[in-house]
Design a protein that fits this description.
Elements (H helix, E strand, L loop, with lengths): L6 H8 L30 E3 L2 E3 L5 E2 L10 H13 L1 H4 L12 H7 L2 H10 L1 E3 L2 E3 L6 H4 L2 H12 L16 H11 L1
Antiparallel strand pairs: 1-2, 2-3, 4-5
Bound molecules: heme C.
Length: about 180
Amino acid sequence: MPRTATPILVAATLALGLPVAASAQSWSDQPVDPAADHPQVPVAYEDGGRYYTDDDIPTYNVAEDGTVDWLTFSGFRRYHSECHVCHGPDGEGSTYAPKIKNSAVNMDYYDFYDVVVNGRANGNSVMPHFGDNQNVMCYLDDIYVYLKARGMDAVPRGRPAQKEAKSDMIQEAENACMG
Ligand code: HEC
């Protein structure tokens, strides 16, 4: 599934996209009950080290001993280099930007992508657009999956202690995306 390679193209055509409705911000304010049914969470299948739901939405996988899938680990690193300056450590939010660990659970995957690719403005509250930033776009599934795991309390705060190895497929997709 070449999802990681396509956002750059999407970005090129949608970079001037209109801001999403301001009411959408409440995604981050809605609490998450990890015990409730979240169809966008359970793993249905694995493909080359990536995990997907029934609806082919990327998701995290945490083994019983706490070992996380590669994307969750990579997402932790990417989040903390690109997003945490505004959204706070571990996706917890700040006085300036919303708690996007909740957004990753409550928002539709494609809406989440759309906000990051095109940005969003609500008065003085501005989410920059990252559609032309390879360091974000090539790892957006990683960041999304990591935040979803945080929102569901499936991984603790901080750096995951144990991770799966990076698969050849993930490495190849990264090389192709980063060019
Ligand atoms: C310069 C500060 C800044 C940076 C860096 C930043 N954001 Fe944001 N982001 C914001 C602000 C502010 C908002 C709220 C915008 C609004 O009020 O509509 C936001 C909103 C969002 C939302 C919508 C949340 C919701 O519940 O509706 C998502 C998703 C998001 N950001 C993801 C990211 C990701 C992923 C990154 C890193 C790649 C990132 N942001 C980096 C400032 C930032």
